[in-house]
Design a protein that fits this description.
The protein is an alpha/beta fold. The protein contains 18 helices and 18 strands.
Length: 496
C-alpha cells in the first residue's frame, strides 16, 4: 500500500480522466490516474498493423479558436503541438438514401441557408427549427448541460424553450413543425451519427450536435497523438498514471480520505473522481445506485475497420475529408430497427475516413488509408451465439456492408483490403468495457436526459463524476465537463 495520499485519484484514463488530471496538475494538485488498459483512452484509438483507428471519434467539435477544445489545449500550452485539419466545409457529413441525398455544410447558418435553398416552400419551418435548437443550447449552457427537472423549474423564466420543447424527441419536433419527409431526412443527416432513430433521440442532444458543428475538425496527427500529448503534459506536471490495473473496490471515508483497492495495490486520496460508468462506480462502492443511475444505455455498435492499400483510387471514387451516411431504404426508422434487431434486411451505414483528414502518413502509411464502418448491432443476439457462430455472423454482416459500399461508389473495396478487423457488440463490450457494447454511455432519450440526468456531484462530498455520462457526449462535451469540474473543485478547496 502506498503511504502517499493524493489530492485526487481519478478512476479511468479516458478523455475525461486525462484532461481533468492535466488541468488539476497544472494547478499544483497531486493526482493519480488508474486505468485498466495499457494506454490512455483505452480503445478510443488503436493500431491495426500500420493503421490507426479511433472508433468513437470521426471528427471533433469545438476546435476553432474561442471554442473549448482549442482553449483547453491552449491553456496547457500545447496549441503548436496539437493542431487540427477541418473536414470539408461544404459537406462534412453526406447523406445518401436511395431517392434522396444531401451534403451538410459546416456551421448552423450554412446548414440553414442550404436547407432553405433545397426546400424553399418550408423556409419558415427550417428557420423555426434552428431557432429552437439555438435557444435550447443556450439554456443548456445555463445549467451546465444537466437539464434535470429541478434545474429547469428552479428558474422557469430562464428555461422557457426547454419547458416547451425539451421533453420532445427529434421526431416529435418534426411532427410539431409538420416537416416533409425529405426535409426530415436532410436534418437527420447530422444527428444520425448518434445511431439513434429520431423517435428515440432527445431534442436536447440534437441541439448540442447542431451548435457544435460550427467546428468539425480532426487532429492533424491523429487522435492517438492528441491524447498522448495531453498525457505527456500531465506526467511532466506530476500526474502518476498507473496502467494495466483494475479497480476492485472503493472504501468508505477513513481519516478524511478514501482507500481504493486495485489489482496493483491500495491507493489513498482526499477525493475520488470516477471516469467509469456511474453504475460501475456504485458497484465498487458496494452500494445500490440511486434511482437516477438506473438509466437505459445507448444502442449497441457493430464496427468494421479496414486498412486499404490505394489512397488515390479511393479518393477518386468519391471519398475525402467527409463522412458518409448510406442507407438501403428511404425509411431510416426501419433501417435502424432492422439493425437493432440483428436482421440487417435494411440498414444504415456510417463511414468515416479520418486518415484522409489527418496529415498523410500520420494514421496510415503514405499512399494508403483507413476506413471505419459503424452500424447498429444486437448485443443480445450475439451474446446468445457460440464463438464460431459469432465469427460466421460477423463475416456475413461485414461482407454485406462492404459489398453495398463498393456498389455505391463503383469500387471493389475487397481487392484493396490489407488489414481488416470486425467488432460485434460483444467484442466492443469486452474491449471498451461497455456493458452492452453501447456506442456511447447512457441513452439519449428524453426520459434519460430529463429524469435520469446525472451531474458531476454525487451524494458523497468526496466522490465526483467526469466523462460523457456526467455531461454531454463527444470529446467537446467531455473536455468542457473537465473544465467545469476543475473550477468546481478549486472553488470547494478555496471555501474550506
Amino acid at each position: 500500500m502506498e503511504n502517499k495520499i493524493y489530492d485526487y485519484l481519478i478512476l479511468g484514463a479516458g478523455w475525461g480522466g486525462v484532461s481533468l488530471g492535466a488541468l488539476l496538475a497544472k494547478e499544483g494538485k497531486k493526482v493519480c490516474v488508474v486505468e485498466k488498459n495499457d494506454r490512455p483512452c483505452g480503445y478510443g484509438y488503436f493500431k491495426l498493423g500500420e493503421y490507426e483507428f479511433s472508433p468513437n471519434a470521426l471528427y471533433i467539435q469545438g476546435c476553432r479558436e474561442g471554442w473549448n477544445v482549442y482553449e483547453f489545449i491552449k491553456e496547457l500550452g500545447l496549441e503548436k503541438e496539437i493542431t487540427f485539419n477541418s473536414l470539408d466545409e461544404d459537406g462534412y457529413d453526406r447523406l445518401i438514401l436511395p431517392n434522396f441525398s444531401f451534403n451538410l455544410p459546416i456551421g448552423i447558418e450554412n446548414i440553414t441557408h442550404k436547407l432553405s435553398s433545397e426546400f424553399p416552400d418550408e423556409d419558415e419551418k427550417i428557420e423555426k427549427f434552428f431557432e429552437i435548437m439555438v435557444k435550447l443550447d443556450d439554456e443548456m449552457d445555463f445549467f451546465e448541460k444537466a437539464p434535470t427537472i429541478m434545474n429547469v423549474l428552479r428558474r422557469p423564466h430562464k428555461n422557457l424553450c426547454t419547458i416547451r420543447y425539451g421533453w420532445m424527441t427529434l421526431q416529435g419536433l418534426f411532427n410539431h413543425l409538420k416537416m416533409s419527409h425529405n426535409l426530415q431526412n436532410a436534418i437527420m443527416g447530422t444527428t444520425l451519427v448518434t445511431d439513434y432513430a429520431p423517435d428515440k433521440l432527445s431534442v436536447l442532444v440534437a441541439s448540442a450536435e447542431y451548435i457544435g458543428y460550427a467546428s468539425c475538425h480532426y487532429p492533424a496527427k491523429g487522435i492517438g497523438h492528441m491524447i498522448k500529448t495531453v498525457e505527456k503534459f500531465a506526467k511532466e506536471n506530476g500526474v502518476t498514471f498507473v496502467y494495466n490495473t483494475e479497480i476492485t473496490a472503493i472504501s468508505n471515508t477513513i481519516d478524511n480520505s478514501r482507500e481504493i483497492q486495485t489489482t496493483s495495490g491500495t491507493f489513498r486520496a482526499n477525493k475520488v473522481i470516477s471516469n467509469l460508468d456511474p453504475q460501475i462506480t456504485y458497484k465498487l462502492l458496494g452500494k445500490d445506485a440511486p434511482r437516477k443511475y438506473h438509466y437505459e444505455y445507448s444502442p449497441s455498435a457493430f464496427l468494421i475497420f479496414l486498412g486499404l492499400t490505394d489512397r488515390k483510387k479511393i479518393m477518386e471514387a468519391g471519398f475525402g475529408k467527409c463522412n458518409y451516411y448510406l442507407t438501403s431504404t428511404d425509411d431510416i426508422h426501419q433501417a435502424i430497427k432492422s439493425m437493432t434487431d440483428g436482421l440487417y434486411d435494411d440498414f444504415a451505414i456510417y463511414i468515416g475516413t479520418p486518415s484522409l483528414v489527418a496529415n498523410e502518413g500520420e494514421m496510415s502509411p503514405t499512399g494508403k488509408m483507413g476506413m471505419q464502418i459503424i452500424i447498429n448491432g444486437s448485443f443480445e443476439k450475439f451474446n446468445q451465439m457460440t464463438p464460431a457462430e459469432q465469427e460466421k455472423e460477423k463475416e456475413r454482416i461485414s461482407n454485406k456492408m462492404i459489398d453495398f459500399i463498393s456498389k455505391k461508389f463503383n469500387i471493389d473495396l475487397n481487392e484493396l483490403v490489407e488489414e481488416k478487423e470486425i467488432w460485434s457488440p460483444v467484442d466492443f463490450s469486452k474491449k471498451a468495457n461497455r456493458p452492452y457494447g453501447n456506442i456511447y454511455g447512457r441513452s439519449f432519450s428524453p426520459k434519460t436526459l430529463i429524469f435520469n440526468q446525472l451531474s458531476q456531484e454525487t451524494e458523497f462530498d468526496d466522490i465526483f463524476l467526469c466523462g460523457a455520462n456526467a455531461t454531454i457526449t463527444g470529446i467537446l462535451g467531455v473536455i468542457n465537463g473537465s473544465l467545469i469540474l476543475r473550477d468546481k473543485l478549486l472553488k470547494i478547496e478555496s471555501e474550506k
